[in-house]
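ESCALATION

Customer reports they have been waiting on this structure for their group meeting. Please prioritize. Original submission:
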Amino acid sequence: GFAIHADGSDEGINGGSIQVMPEIFIRNIDLGITKVGPETVLAGDKLTYYINATNYGPSGISNATIIDKFPDYLTNITWDCTIVPLNNGTCYPPTISGKTYTAKVTLFANASANITVTANVMNGSCLINNTANITNTTDPIYSAVIETNPDNNEAFARTHVLYCISGYKLEDTNSDGIGDTGREGWNINITNATGYFDNTTTGPDGFYQFCSLYGNTTYTLEETLQSGWVNTTPTSQDIYLGCDNGTLNFTNQIMKLCLSGYKLDEDNGPQSGWEITVTNSTGDEVGTDTTDVN
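Update from on-call: job pushed to the front of the queue and completed.
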């Protein structure tokens, strides 16, 4: 068979000359690409994408181009490419412009470039969208390379970025309305309007944390008030979690009770100048006072 091309001159059929090319120089390829990423990732953690670029043939190609423009909220990006089957093509190092990675690959028919991308996820986004594509760059060896199925030349991955709410359970030791000492063993619950629920217990320094939370959501946190304590901050508090981590503290103070009475003689007369000492169940002194004239 032959391919027929007009060279633009004014001779030949319909005023143009005819140039014929053996069919062997026309090469058909079908390039395809897929991209897989996690459904969710915690802000601050590492995200991994798996890209598969395949030449389904029937011909090979020596100059296909893979382009991936990564979102601004991904940093410390790594790119690792392997040809499968082995020795059925070549991966070339990507050129990098900002967050755009452009890589050339040579692929025999039915060979693939398996690319693993890792990146650290920054705070600030609740959703990361990423698209990779592969294109046929005209093979310099052959004058005609035809992509038979361009519909599979683009792949898309979407990942939700999750965040944490953390804080401290604090004791207000001097009744100034400010928590200053962490308290261990307090139960904290978290809920939202969609029915989400979790709970945890504060650690030795009063710290608690809930992670893997979707952003752009209002959460309700509630402490379980223990006997002998009164709350300084509300026991139930709402916090709107945007595309960043949130902080919420709970503050309480020990319930302070008073002991009072009179020092009387046998005729129920008041006795002044007597020292009264109060001790607790372990024998420790709690306080002393001296009776007045009443």
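Sent to customer with the following note: The chain has a mean pLDDT of 88.
Escalation resolved.
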